[in-house]
Amino acid sequence: MTDHPYTIVGAGAIGGTLAVHLHAQGVPVQLIDADHEHIAAIRAGGLRVDSPQGTITADLPAFTLDDAPQELERVLLAVKAQATASAAAWIAPRLGADGYVASLQNGLNEATIAHHVGVERTVAAFVDLFADVVGPGVIKDGGSGGMALGEYGGGTSARTRRLAEDLRHWGTPKVTGNVQGYLWSKLGFGAMLTATALADQDMSELIDRHRPAMNGLAAEVFDVAAVESVELEPFDAFDPESYRRGADPDRNTAATDALVAWLATQSKTRSGIWRDIVVRKRPTEVPTQYLPVLALAERHGIATPLLRDLLTLIQQREANTIDMSEDHLAALDRKAASRA
Length: 340
Prior knowledge:
Blueprint: E1 6-9, H1 13-24, E2 29-32, H2 36-45, E3 47-51, E4 54-58, E5 62-63, E6 72-77, H3 84-91, E7 95-103, H4 110-117, E8 122-128, E9 131-135, E10 138-141, E11 146-151, H5 158-166, E12 174-175, H6 179-196, H7 203-209, H8 211-227, H9 249-264, H10 272-278, H11 286-300, H12 305-318, H13 327-339
């Protein structure tokens, strides 16, 4: 299996960035994407990633869905969350008996992948990247973040350790049996970043100015994680324990101060959700990411009014039925204060 190339399905911000770093490490990798213009640009001039560390361009085999290889082995799935089911269904008949699919995505997508390819061929992954596709064949990467790899069925394995080793040009992925802890922590942090997409200012500024809403959104996610017995994991500058309901106020303040300061150093100042709405004018993956959280909350009888309002507001922004305004965050602040 190790002689087969990695196949990255979804050559966008996450998939494209990791592909270039795999190539730079001397690891064989090929790309598949539904965007014909993006693939044509990669075929013509390679895939370019611009980052604070410099520019890397990789000449990679690149395919559309129409001309993709019929047999795949090591698949790194990096499509938007809402495309997971269709992508996994497309991959399943092509996946070799010893192959696997690793979910390098946002949200809780492993169960959907496993439904199509089997638990034993599903690798769980957490990825925190600040990157955007800024044009066909071009990605702007704000710098390396965090990654964790493990088996969806539990524990770690030789293949997850091998994947971590192959990605060492990009960074140092952690191989762990608790990828779920990272994914749920990211859902809490992601709710905060998603809320910033409702206004036209930088993420760091909005999180700083609207701490009640940010605390409340993360706390609702972590209320659900608690009843699901998830052990939250910190990553980058985010300390999830500081956002649990009832966390020490001084610890919460210090954690948000540190988070805001870290975000202010990033070259990517707006969220990918903001970019989807304002620049690319396409549906976001927010509903797919958070509807499972809301379903679990309802099952356990946990109130999630802020998360529900956030999803409604994001969907209204996608439909352009409300304006982008910091007033939306102020309203979430007031609702959070009423719950305190």
